[in-house]
Automatic annotation (TrEMBL):
One of its GO terms (cellular component) is membrane. It is found in: Membrane. Residues 362-578 form the NFD4 C-terminal domain. The lineage of its organism: Eukaryota, Viridiplantae, Streptophyta, Embryophyta, Tracheophyta. Its main location: membrane. It is a multi-pass membrane protein. Keywords: Membrane, Transmembrane, Transmembrane helix. The chain crosses the membrane at residues 29-51, 93-111, 158-181, 187-207, 228-248, 260-279, 367-385, 436-455, 461-484, 496-516, 553-572. Residues 309-332 are annotated as: Disordered. InterPro entries: MFS_trans_sf, NFD4_C, Nodulin-like. This is Nodulin-like domain-containing protein.
Length: 627
């Protein structure tokens, strides 16, 4: 026992040093932890179902106006092209800083409008506030997801599933913190929490989110870290289970403010528990480096100077410009020739898995198929999530039960994201199961949830519907982002993954605003004996009964089934690609300690141009030898 205490004391002495702290904070594993914390507070858009009733009561909006606000919320959270373009030229901390500012400004104005601190804004201005606040989620997602995919390219399925899982849990996390801080008495206080907390978390971790140079990451634990990801998975499962238990208990037992504070304290412990896994992994890396210095054979390093050599030009052949001048012709520089060259480039895409340019991806048949499938699938499930409050109200559920539905959707949203990320990664690596086929299965399963809502079956049917809808909505995102990174490469990934996400608000606008909102208001007007109100606030006419959403969700079911059939075309087009080892070049580059083709070009294009380093055991070199 004395030896055990001595060993523990020695480990503590090694860990509690400034040198080890710098190693932890500068490593890619701490970047992953920081991104988990940022995303765990960034999913405020999924809490819209809780405070949408406050929008109706405080501002006098009808269902079509609320659906319009929901559309602009979805538009802001999914149109991340500005965030992607900024990520192409700026470091991750700049992307996160812009997102934090937009979150604070947008949701603070929503809170002030609900609280009556400012004049009642017109609908278009409230749409702008909601869109700006929700767009911060796109900046947070771009800064976190793209950074972690570039840091862990060979395990991107697990990375995306884990990160998007925390996004799925975030609205439930915010709800629990809201109960502890404000007592859950007023939905306006929830909007205030949404305004300041995500911005504060992003600012706190700004300096630690960065792309770690691959040569540094490859030495000492440069592999995929599968055991670490499974530890993080188990912690996230425990977090989701804890939230689920708290939701159920809080609906059965009357909690005091102290009880809410105690439950929030347990939540925070689980939220920060991944930091212990990060510290353990960095300690393991430090010991591996020390062992390589003391026990491995000396590493031979040969430095070969290279000189830049110009491409040989025959003395008998004049340069192209001189040749054009001697023949009296001018080089092709007209706008028509440039347009022709652009079109030839756009419509001549590389093979699957190579780096596409943005124009090549935009006109790609594969991207169009993905866009159509996600517009139908995510648009339908998002319509169900945004209207869950009105669905429960129309079917006669009490308000506290409706809030439980929204929180349960958040938990199952998490489950779908994590399950899709980890399971698709395992099935792909073990059996070569193509990820687009997993997307097809998710879309087919979501049809069952839509049918349960359409039928309005009694009993626990809406509970089952919330489980299916939340799970299938969450499962679509890691699959979409992983497929985009696999088919179109990582060079333009920040922009391309945001382009794919635009499909969600497009589908939500058609299915939510034009279908569900219009049909709900028409049924409400029929029940109240009047014409449907004009969008923007013609009065709150509540609809009651199964007919409020029956036709809407029958249409959504048909659209989702069509999306599943469209996705089968992508399965057929990519069948040969997924039969091969699509991650081979990333593993080979990690073993060789080379810069991966994550930020533009192939491995060969990113090797040093002046100095070539040859080593017999380069993967065992300590940090600093090649830096």
């Amino acid at each position: 026992m004395v030896l055990a205490f001595a060993a523990a004391g020695g480990v503590a002495a090694e860990v509690l040093t400034a040198r080890f702290a710098r190693q932890v904070v500068s490593g890619r594993w701490f970047t992953l932890f920081a991104c988990l914390m940022i995303l765990s507070a960034s999913g405020a858009t999924y809490a819209f179902g809780i405070y949408s009733r406050a929008l109706r009561s405080s501002l006098g909006y009808d269902q079509r106006a609320v659906a319009t606000l929901a559309f602009f919320k979805d538009l802001g959270s999914n149109v991340g092209v500005p965030a992607g373009l900024l990520s192409e030229v700026a470091p991750p901390w700049a992307v996160l800083a812009v997102g934090a500012a937009m979150n604070l400004a947008g949701y603070l104005m929503v809170y002030l409008s609900l609280a009556g601190r400012v004049a009642r804004p017109p609908l278009w201005l409230m749409c702008a506030y909601v869109c700006a606040g929700a767009n911060s989620q796109a900046f947070a997602g771009t800064g976190a997801l793209v950074t972690c995919v570039r840091n862990f390219p060979e395990t991107r399925g697990a990375v995306l599933g884990l990160l998007k899982g925390y996004v799925g849990l975030s609205s439930a996390v915010l709800a629990q913190l809201y109960l502890a801080l404000y007592g859950g008495s007023d939905a306006r206080s929830l909007v205030l929490l949404i305004a300041w907390l995500p911005a504060a978390v992003s600012v706190a971790f700004l300096a630690t989110v960065r792309v770690v140079p691959r040569q540094k990451a490859a030495r000492g634990g440069g592999g995929g870290g599968g055991d670490v990801f499974f530890c993080l998975l188990y912690i996230s499962v425990a977090l989701a289970a804890y939230i689920l238990v708290m939701i159920v208990v809080q609906r059965q037992v009357s909690f005091s403010r102290a009880a809410y504070a105690a439950s929030a304290a347990g939540l925070l412990v689980l939220l920060f528990l991944p930091l212990a896994v990060v510290v353990r992994q960095e300690y393991r890396i430090m010991k591996e480096i020390e062992e390589s210095l003391t026990s491995s054979a000396p590493t031979t390093v040969t430095v070969i100077e290279k000189t830049a050599t110009a491409s040989p030009i025959s003395e008998s052949e004049p340069p192209p410009v001189a040749a054009a001048a001697s023949t009296g012709t001018r080089p092709l520089s007209s706008s028509s020739s440039r347009l022709g060259a652009f079109l030839r480039h756009a419509f001549s895409p590389p093979a699957h898995g190579e780096d596409y340019s943005i124009p090549q991806a935009l006109v790609s048949v594969d991207m169009l198929i993905l866009f159509a499938a996600i517009a139908c699938g995510a648009g339908g499930t998002l319509t169900a999530i945004d209207n869950m409050g009105q669905i429960g109200q129309s079917l006669g559920y009490p308000p506290e039960t409706v809030d439980a539905f929204v929180s349960l959707i958040s938990v199952w949203n998490y489950a779908g994201r994590v399950a899709a990320g980890y399971a698709s990664e395992y099935l792909l690596a073990r059996y070569g199961f193509p990820r687009p086929l997993a997307l097809t299965a998710v879309l087919a399963a979501s049809c069952a949830g839509h049918l349960l809502i359409a039928t309005g079956a009694p009993g626990g049917a809406l509970y089952a519907a919330s489980v299916l809808v939340g799970f299938c909505f969450g499962a679509q995102w890691p699959l979409l982002y992983a497929v985009i990174s696999e088919l179109f490469g990582l060079k333009r990934y920040p922009t391309l993954y945001n382009l794919g996400a635009i499909a969600s608000p497009v589908g939500a606008y058609v299915l939510n605003v034009r279908v569900a909102g219009r049909l709900y208001d028409a049924e409400a007007a029929r029940q109240h004996g009047g014409a449907p109100p004009a969008a923007g606030g013609g009065g709150d006419k509540t609809c009651v009964g199964v007919e409020c959403f029956r036709r809407s969700f029958l249409i959504i079911t048909a659209a989702t089934a069509a999306g599943a059939l469209v996705s089968l075309v992508l399965v057929w087009r990519t069948r040969e690609f997924y039969r091969g080892d699509i991650y081979a070049r990333f593993r080979d580059a990690a073993v060789a300690g080379e810069e991966l083709p994550c930020t533009g070009g192939s491995v060969a294009e990113q090797q040093p141009s002046q100095v070539e380093i040859e080593s017999t055991e380069v993967n065992e070199m300590p940090i600093g030898v090649l830096s």
